[in-house]
Amino acid sequence: MRRKLLACGLALGLLTATAPAAPAHAADVVSAPLVFGVSEAQRAVAYWLADGGANLNNATALIPPYDVRGERTSGTIVPSGKPIQINPVAPEAEGAPPRTTGKVFFVGGDHQPHWCSGVALQNPYRNLVATAAHCVYDMVSAPATNYHWVFIPGPAADGTHPYGIYAGKQVFTHYDFTQYRDPDRDVAFVSVYSGVVPSGDGTLTTNGRLGDIVGGQGVAYNQAINETTVPTVDVFGYPVGPHPDGTRPYTGQNLEHSSGQVSTTNLTSPSADQLVGVESPFTGEGALGAAWLEGYENERGLGYLNGITAGVSDTDGDGRYDTGISPYFDTALSAIYRAAAANWTGRIT
Q1: With 0-12 CB in 10 A as exposed, 13-18 as middle and 19+ as buried, what is 174?
Q2: DSSP labels for 37-101?
Q3: pLDDT confidence bin for 80, thresholds 50/70/90
Q4: What is the rounded distance in angstroms from the CA atom of residue 120 to the CA atom of residue 235?
């Protein structure tokens, strides 16, 4: 069931290897299908709803793929281009608060159900989710996509899904992640079908487009980080794993929120050039894929995605995680977003 990813697989219909007018970073964009058609997307949803949602209840949070060691520093990142901001959008229903953060569920290379955090983003088709790339690809043996991949925004603590289930259709990420497992590019954008909700007789009914139902966060790239500019972000995710000292402060059932300053990092593991850190007490399991929102306004529930938790670190050695890490959102990642944002999906019912 896993989808093999071709090394040269570019976004179909959006990018070509010979187009002379293609953007400079177009060749970095790799795309792969998560399903081959509507019927397979329906089966993905059915897998999670079967036996009263047994697979949802039995899914475990994905374990971080690498051990992060190092510290936050006061260094400088020189942006690769002009700062970019794409504004967020509120839900279509008047007065409805955004419910953009949720969980992505999938079956991994071990054929077991797992989950990570994820977030809905603004785009013209209102159908885009961001998470860590290793929450979409099984990288244990060879680059391949996980299967039965769905996004559930705002899942309730009792395991229900009040805003629908959104089956993944296509994933977009950076070439260096799929080929070299580069932590600097551990971000994925997934276009999803319109949501579905199960009726009493088990049939699926269309719920609507993701962004129309829950809203979509904005996106920010090439934001300055230096001694005088120290961004603050709000981190949203569903941590559940233990700290190194064995304590478990989180259950994974409720959306958790922390706020901290972003900085450069000096890491001994993993080998990476542009991972940034944020002050955050989240543990790794469950928080992978958590959204970093710059300029977040609590009253509106909206901000600008400027990071995705790819790992966590205990920088002071006290047995408690204190730092989340993310790839720096630069011009190359903005090309990945643009390709994903232009991918239409449709309905599965």
Answers
A1: buried
A2: SHHHHHHHHHHHHHHHHHHHHH-EEPPPSS--EEEEE---B--SSS-EEE--B--SSTTPPP--E
A3: confident
A4: 14
Residue 348 within any structural domain of the chain: no
Measured between alpha carbons, how far is 258 from 277 in angstroms, rounded to an integer?
A: 13
**Domain tally for the chain?**
1
Q: What is the mean pLDDT of residues 159-181?
A: 94
| Contacts of residue 172, Cβ cutoff 8 Å, sequence gap at least 6 | 11, 29, 30, 31, 188, 189, 190, 191, 336, 337, 339, 340, 343
Question: Mean per-residue pLDDT for 217-238?
Answer: 92
CB 121 within 8 A of CB 219: yes
Rounded CA separation 238/241 (Å): 10
82-96 mean pLDDT: 94
Question: What CATH number corresponds to the domain at position 61?
Answer: 2.40.10.120
Query: Is residue 346 assigned to a domain?
Result: no
Looking at the predicted structure, is the pLDDT value of residue 323 above 90? yes
Q: How far is CA 137 from CA 6, 170, 222, 238, 337, in A?
A: 13, 12, 26, 20, 17
Residue 145 counted as domain residue: yes
Residue 18 has pLDDT above 60, yes or no: no
How far, in Å, CA of 194 to CA of 50, rounded? 20
Residue with tokens 């090394």: 7
- The DSSP string of 281-313 is ---STTTTT-EEEEEEETTTTEEEEEEE--EEE
- pLDDT reported for residue 157: 81
What's 134's DSSP letter?
A: G
Residues of the domain holding 264? 3-341
**Contact partners, residue 326, CB within 8 Å, separation at least 6:** 187, 275, 276, 277, 278, 292, 307, 308, 309, 310
Residue 27, classed as helix, strand or coil, is helix
**Is 332 strand, coil or helix?**
helix
